[in-house]
Amino acid sequence: MKKIVILDGYTTNPGGLSWKELESMGDVSVYDRTKPEDTVARAAGADIILTNKVAIGRREIEQLPQLQYIGVLATGYNVVDITAARECGIIVTNVPAYSTESVAQMVFAHLLTVTNRTEHYAVQNRGGRWSQEPDFCYWDTPLMELSGKTFGIVGLGNIGSRVAQIALAFGMKVKALTSKAADALPSNIQKADLHELLSCSDVLSLHCPLTDETHHLITTDTLNMMKPTAILINTGRGPLVNDADVAEALNSNRLRAYCADVMTEEPPHAAHPLLRQPNAYITPHIAWATTEARTRLLQTAIANVRAFINGKPQNVITPQ
To answer: Mind telling me the catalytic residues?
Structure first.
């Protein structure tokens, strides 16, 4: 029987879902959270490790000679040293595309928060504001219609493509920075270079992988190319933007709003400049965390383990 260790099971399953199917495949130990200094001790003797954010680097891999398989409970797999795993004959898998619908939904939850400010008005009216107004309606924030505006997308993978579809349904014009050929795109999505995308977008949404080329894609220089009325959305990776530069752009009214579900440091330190910025709308990395998305994640992760045990591994990551 395989020894299976889940190093940080809480975020995937804080309750309501079940590891029971996995327990039928081996001796399962589930830890809610694991500190770096405890990783090797907890994984000692394991044939199979499942991890979301606990890093499994070369140092850990070399101290776990029995390890055969690492299952990443996410799509991104930068927490694992893939090269070291391959050198030691360890299979590494991930869970692709489980959160596409949920992340796309979060993009527009953020966008509509800025354009319609429903929470702002709901909070005011719980305090009696509307009841005191002399007119049948009131508004004290700008209200913006999406139809006819330009929605720029950086990266047209699964999530970026779904976001494009939703933007089009709102009547927006969609332009994208993508490696795909222009003639391979739907006719209602226009391919654009970075300069054009920055300069014409009323909304810019980031959906590209984090690489050396995209690290700090958004800085003071690129922000200065954008409209001061633009809304920037990041549900991709925190380091795609320079946080300090975005905070300064907001402070100086060179950017209307920054919406982010990801940060460079998670959780961010209490004095982070974006946390106190009134035109920054920050959610705590929850776009992926709907019940439906986590259910798909868990089902695929378990299926990945079963496929590995059966000698037919799926969703295998290979070194780049």
So the answer is: 237, 266, 285
